TrEMBL record, chain A:
PANTHER family: N-ALPHA-ACETYLTRANSFERASE 20. Keywords: Acyltransferase, Transferase. Catalytic subunit of the NatB complex which catalyzes acetylation of the N-terminal methionine residues of peptides beginning with Met-Asp, Met-Glu, Met-Asn and Met-Gln. Proteins with cell cycle functions are overrepresented in the pool of NatB substrates. Required for maintaining the structure and function of actomyosin fibers and for proper cellular migration. Component of the N-terminal acetyltransferase B (NatB) complex which is composed of NAA20 and NAA25. Coiled coil: none annotated. It catalyses: N-terminal L-methionyl-L-asparaginyl-[protein] + acetyl-CoA = N-terminal N(alpha)-acetyl-L-methionyl-L-asparaginyl-[protein] + CoA + H(+); N-terminal L-methionyl-L-glutamyl-[protein] + acetyl-CoA = N-terminal N(alpha)-acetyl-L-methionyl-L-glutamyl-[protein] + CoA + H(+); N-terminal L-methionyl-L-glutaminyl-[protein] + acetyl-CoA = N-terminal N(alpha)-acetyl-L-methionyl-L-glutaminyl-[protein] + CoA + H(+); N-terminal L-methionyl-L-aspartyl-[protein] + acetyl-CoA = N-terminal N(alpha)-acetyl-L-methionyl-L-aspartyl-[protein] + CoA + H(+). The keyword RNA-binding does not apply. Belongs to the acetyltransferase family. ARD1 subfamily. The keyword Nucleus does not apply. InterPro entries: Acyl_CoA_acyltransferase (IPR016181), GNAT_dom (IPR000182), NatB_acetyltransferase_subunit (IPR051646). This is N-alpha-acetyltransferase 20. It comes from Nicrophorus vespilloides (Boreal carrion beetle). SUPFAM superfamilies: Acyl-CoA N-acyltransferases (Nat) (SSF55729).
UniProtKB/TrEMBL annotation, chain B:
It comes from the Eukaryota. It comes from Nicrophorus vespilloides (Boreal carrion beetle). Belongs to the MDM20/NAA25 family. This is N-terminal acetyltransferase B complex subunit MDM20 homolog. The keyword ATP-binding does not apply. PANTHER family: N-ALPHA-ACETYLTRANSFERASE 25, NATB AUXILIARY SUBUNIT, N-TERMINAL ACETYLTRANSFERASE-RELATED.
Length: 173, 958
């Protein structure tokens, strides 16, 4: 069921079955619109035969020089459609787009407590590049892992040599 | 500007001096910002930017006219300084005068015609006001000045928009002219070898597509340009091949894609569509046999269901994509079966090819029954079986799982399959005609299964995981709702709440539980408890529109005016801000060249602006503000008095759209086989009722606005306008006649429209008479006045005695919860009516005062005095009635808890307790009754406070 199609504004009206999940953030409208306007190719949704949204991925390309990379801003799959390889194929799509854009790597942030996601990213070939302290505000604040996977352009895999020290949110570029 | 020479040096100083103003503006302290502006302006009175900033500060502190005066004076100066223009732009945007922004920049460009930035702002100003024609002109001017590709594309896009959304819509000739112009513009780029970026290629495709030149689009996709696109090329090609009915190509392309990834559902649909298109046309042109000998399998066109079946089977055999179990080919078989059935109604060819469809279901269940999605996948195809066979299948699935009344699931997977089989059984109608006893037994069994599933398989879950066993509770709640519908009693609802709350304690993140609780609390009229659940759902942003209605629309009619007011404010603010911001997104699209999103963004903007929920909330918000109007000063500061138009004129009635998200409410009711909830007849009826109700409320609001602002209108039109509005309102109500309540059948449906109960409340009797009083006082007709005041008094008395009687009888009613809910709703209407009456009394009073000052009426003081007396008399009467009602409400706030519970001890809770014990949930007993009763008492207290303030308010005017 992994036919992906570009995410459209109207999908925001029916993504609640996915977004009410506790680990999925619902952002302000402008945030989504900005992604749709700037990186429409990076915002894809998977729809079920019955018309429900099964999951979506939202990302962007940014950075200069050898920091030019794809970034996963949000990835989420509805609880009813998990463990069917959906997240894997959404990630696959984003990696393909990043390859075509000649990115050096793909990265993402994930809560250190989100074992399911971290495990999944590991299985998809991502490594923990560094820890970002208190990246997620809340009570208490939570650290993030900045995870990465090199693209083919980074032949020497320079982008995925882990940092030895954690960084603060204000120090990430 | 005059000091251009010293510009660089000066600008630093200037920035430093202006900085504090910006800071205060950012901090939202407009008073300070104005002071700071004045300070700067004292030193340099001609500093236009400081003036502009003052205008903005004034505007934001509500001084619209002073702001406009400054803006006008600045406009006269024909400025070209972008920093100033930016500030003025902000003002005009906040004033919703977008055309003024364009005028500003038009003028500025005359002063400074080669300024790229000013040109860009001019273009964007036209984007914001959707003036496509001017956009095009501005973009071309910009391109002539600075020949960059993006500017050129802006012009092309503007031409395209004129064709498809502008004047081209009604003038086909113009449309084709504009489109061919757009195409020629792009051709020119191509000839000059300048078409490069992905966005430009997309724009090219859009222009071709708008002209239905699909062949040419395919050429572009196959050319070098195609390689620039980051989308999925084969999928794109399919779109255009379909437009061209090139079914053989589609067939082969789909086969190729599918053999690489078997799970792409849209591709499966295209594949099967092509198979049947080919099959049908071949039948007509008589089988022409392909010579298949040397053609590789994948290049063979499958043009019969048999070949399609073979293809599917092959992919099923080949197995999985990278280790995952793929639903695609299995579902494709269902789709094949469905299409064959549709093609050959009544014959057995589908069965001959695919066997008994029931076997397909059973096989799918064996493969995917442990996945929650199995149910919604199969739901789409249940219509392949008739009612009887559905039941048969449901039985088979249950047996297949092997859980009976004597055993429990041994593994998590078995539990999932059990849940799936139960949900499918409900969908198949297996539980449609169960007796109350059987439903009770079923619920008990489900709660046992929940407890077991939670203990066995829930312990190791993270709090953020969804616990599979929760599904038993959800099902149980739906069965209890059935029971409530069967018996008409509240007891099953309380039971459902107990069960859901208990489960929620174990799974604090499960939103399905919360959505059901929200609904149940509202069904019981407990807005306060609903609010707690609503808060825990953390509804925000667009969810206000897609989910807010379920809660928002229930609050004021359950007496929770305070909560309603807060939520209405947040909701309206969301709509206003986002509607304003939405033109920003359009400008971003141009900036980044995402032309394909422009139409989508514009449609979305419209969908948001025309939201039914928005209109409804706006209207309700005003009525709640009437309820909360405690002093005379507050009356004259009411928002409604700032409206320059009547509410019913600002709502775009033809375009109102319900943006409610239905599919987030899961359920397994047989009705769901018949398509999505939003398309059900019941849903449409419901929406229609809601629209009617909104229209009635809106026409009443118009009357209130007209009455309250009677002195604003030109003198000769005052009373006529009010009369016209009142007639419109009365006719709307009468046009609706008596409205029977519809039935709320299923938990997944929106709650009932309030049209019925609203129409039964005496709005027309009381307020209708009250408007007559206003009129009689205004025209100073003593006789009429006496008469209509008598009528009004009678109506008010009848209203209060009705509600008082109902409230007093509450404790004797067989089902307190149901009665309470009905009474509370009625009581809310009464309070709303009394609030409106109070406002109208004030209006009468003002009219009398006004005429006594002798402004225009000539010496009618004697009559005035007696009018005055009769109004005082009316006010006294209303006050008395309010006091009566308040007295009756008193016991509902204090003694109530023990009283009701002991009362229920005999009627409701015996049975409930038994059931709870049977369900092992007895420790929760009573707690639900408690929280319902407490919430009820709190709400009644709030309403008593409202009544008391109304009474005080009336004292002030008599
Ligand atoms: C994380 C998430 C996106 C995974 O989606 P999914 O579609 O179920 O994942 P997939 O089926 O593609 O799984 C890919 C692989 O990840 C791993 N994985 C995924 N979910 C797992 C789980 N619950 N437990 C263990 N491993 C898991 C597995 O290795 C899996 O392959 P397998 O099933 O063959 O073993 C989904 O759980 C989700 O939406 N979570 C909430 C939102 C979130 O946390 N997003 C990430 C924020 S950065």
């Amino acid at each position: 069921m992994t036919t992906l199609r570009p995410f459209t504004c109207d999908d925001m009206y029916k993504f609640n079955n996915v977004n009410l999940d506790p680990l999925t953030e619902t952002y302000g409208l402008s945030f989504y619109m900005q992604y749709l306007a700037h990186w429409p190719e990076y915002f894809q949704v998977a729809e079920s035969p019955s018309g429900d949204i099964m999951g979506y991925i939202m990302g962007k390309a940014e950075g200069h020089g050898d920091n030019w990379h794809g970034h996963v801003t949000a990835l989420t799959v509805s609880p009813d459609y998990r463990r069917l390889g959906l997240a894997a194929s959404l990630m696959n799509f984003l990696e393909d787009v990043s390859e075509r854009k000649r990115a050096y790597f793909v990265d993402l942030f994930v809560r250190v407590s989100n074992k399911v996601a971290i495990n999944m990213y590991n299985n998809l070939g991502y490594i923990v590049y560094r820890t970002v302290l208190e990246y997620y505000s809340g009570d208490p604040d939570e650290d993030a892992y900045d995870m990465r996977k090199a693209c083919s352009r980074d032949v020497k895999q320079k982008s995925v040599i882990p940092l030895t020290h954690p960084v603060r949110p204000e120090d990430i570029d | 500007m005059s000091y251009k020479g010293a510009h660089v040096q000066d600008s630093c100083v200037l920035e430093r001096r202006l900085r504090p103003i910006y800071d205060w503006l950012d901090a939202g302290n407009y008073k300070k910002a104005i002071q700071e502006c004045d300070k700067v302006l004292k030193k340099s009175p001609n500093l236009d930017r400081a003036l502009a900033l003052k205008a903005l500060s004034l505007l934001r502190s509500g001084k619209e006219s002073s702001c406009i005066t400054i803006l006008d004076s600045l406009t006269e100066k024909q400025l070209a300084d972008d920093a100033i223009l930016q500030v003025m732009t902000m003002c005009y945007r906040e004033l919703q005068q977008l055309e003024k922004v364009s005028q500003l920049y038009e003028v500025a460009l005359k002063v400074d015609p080669t300024n790229e930035e000013l040109h860009t702002h001019l273009f964007m100003s036209y984007v914001r006001s959707s003036d496509f024609k001017q956009q095009q002109k501005a973009a071309m001017a910009l391109y002539k000045l600075v020949p960059k590709n993006p500017y050129y594309c802006w012009a092309v896009m503007s031409a395209l928009l004129q064709a498809i959304r502008g004047e081209g819509v009604d003038h086909p000739k113009k449309k084709s002219l504009l489109l061919s112009l757009a195409e020629r513009m792009i051709d020119k780029l191509i000839q000059e070898n300048k078409l490069e970026a992905e966005q430009e290629v997309q724009l090219y495709i859009m222009v071709l597509e708008a002209q239905e030149k699909y062949d040419k689009v395919l050429e572009v996709l196959d050319s070098n340009f195609g390689t620039k696109l980051s989308g999925d090329l084969p999928q794109l090609r399919l779109v255009y091949l379909k437009h061209l009915n090139r079914w053989p190509d589609i067939n082969v392309l789909c086969k190729k894609i599918l053999s690489e990834s078997v799970d792409r559902w849209q591709i499966w649909l295209s594949y099967l569509k092509s198979v049947f298109e080919l099959y049908i046309s071949n039948n007509h042109s008589n089988n022409h046999q392909q010579d298949l000998a040397d053609v590789p399998d994948l290049d063979v066109v499958d043009d019969t269901p048999e070949k399609a079946h073979e293809f599917i089977c092959k992919l099923v055999e080949n197995g999985s994509d990278n280790g995952f179990l793929m639903r695609g080919p299995y579902l494709a078989r269902f789709e094949l079966c469905k299409q064959m059935r549709e093609l050959n109604k009544g014959d057995e060819s589908a069965e001959c090819l695919l066997g008994d469809p029931m076997e397909l279901f059973i096989e799918y269940f064996r493969k995917f029954g442990h996945k929650p999605c199995c149910v919604s996948d199969l739901r789409e195809y249940l219509e392949l079986l008739d009612g009887e066979r559905r039941l048969e299948m449901a039985g088979k699935l249950i047996r297949e799982v092997g859980i009976t009344s004597t055993n429990i699931p041994q593994t998590e997977q078995q539990m999932q399959r059990h849940i799936c089989a139960l949900q499918l059984s409900r969908l198949c109608g297996s539980h449609a005609n169960l007796s109350a006893e059987l439903i009770k037994a079923l619920v008990t069994a489900l709660s046992y299964h929940y407890l077991h599933g939670h203990q066995e398989y829930g312990a190791k879950l993270l709090s953020t995981d969804q616990a599979p066993a929760d599904a038993y509770t959800l099902l149980g709640a739906h069965f209890l709702y059935d029971l409530h519908r069967m018996t008409g009693t509240s007891q099953p609802l309380l039971l459902a709440i107990v069960l859901l709350k208990y489960t929620l304690k174990n799974s604090p993140c499960n939103f399905h539980l919360k959505l059901l609780l929200l609904r149940l609390y509202h069904i019981l009229g407990s807005g306060l408890n609903a609010q707690t659940i609503y808060d825990s759902l953390d509804i925000k942003h667009l969810q206000f529109d897609s989910m807010g209605y379920a809660h928002c629309s229930m609050l004021s009619s359950s007496g929770n005016f305070g909560l309603a007011s807060t939520l209405f404010d947040t909701t309206v603010k969301f709509f206003i801000t986002n509607y304003k911001d939405s033109s920003d997104h359009l400008t971003f699209s141009y900036k980044y060249g995402s032309f394909s999103k422009l139409s989508e963004f514009m449609n979305f903007q419209e969908r948001l602006g025309c939201s039914f929920h928005y209109a409804n909330t706006l209207v309700e918000k005003h009525f709640v503000s009437f309820v909360h109007c405690n002093t005379i000063e507050q009356v004259w500061a009411l928002d409604i008095l700032n409206n320059s138009k009547y509410m019913s004129e600002t709502i775009n009635w033809d375009k109102l759209i319900i943006n409610h998200n239905y599919n987030v409410y899961v359920s397994w009711d047989p009705e769901r086989i018949n398509g999505p909830i939003e398309e059900w007849k019941e849903t449409k009826d419901h929406n229609e009722r809601d629209s009617k109700l909104l229209y009635i409320k809106c026409t009443l609001l118009d009357c209130m606005q007209s009455a309250l602002s009677i002195f604003k209108a030109p003198e000769h039109r005052r009373i006529d306008q009010l009369k016209a509005k009142v007639v419109a309102w009365k006719e709307t109500i009468k046009g609706n006649g008596v409205v029977e309540d519809s039935e709320h059948k299923l938990l997944c449906m929106r709650l009932l429209s309030k049209l019925g109960s609203y129409m039964r409340a005496p709005y027309l009797q009381v307020l209708g008479a009250m408007f007559d009083v206003v009129e009689a006082v205004y025209i100073d007709d003593m006789e009429q006045c006496t008469q209509v005041i008598a009528i009004t008094k009678e109506a008010v008395k009848a209203m209060t005695s009705d509600i008082c009687e109902a409230l007093t009888g509450e404790s004797k009613s067989p089902d307190v919860y149901i009665t309470r809910k009905v009474n509370l709703e009625h009581l809310s209407y009464v309070i709303e009516i009394l609030s409106n009456v109070s406002l109208l009394c004030l209006v009468c009073w003002e009219i009398i005062k006004n005429s006594q000052c002798g402004a225009s009426k000539k010496a009618k003081k004697k009559v005035d005095n007696s009018t005055r007396e009769s109004i005082t008399n009316l006010v006294m009467c209303v006050k008395e009635e309010i006091t009566k009602l308040d007295e009756v409400l008193k016991p509902h706030t204090n003694e109530l808890t023990p009283l009701i519970v002991s009362k229920m001890g005999s009627t409701i809770f015996d049975d409930l307790n038994e059931q709870l014990t049977a369900m092992n949930l007895s420790e929760e007993e009573g707690s639900v009754a408690d929280i319902l009763t407490k919430a009820y008492a709190v709400t009644i207290k709030e309403l008593r406070t409202v009544l008391k303030t109304k009474s005080k308010f009336l004292s002030c005017i008599s």
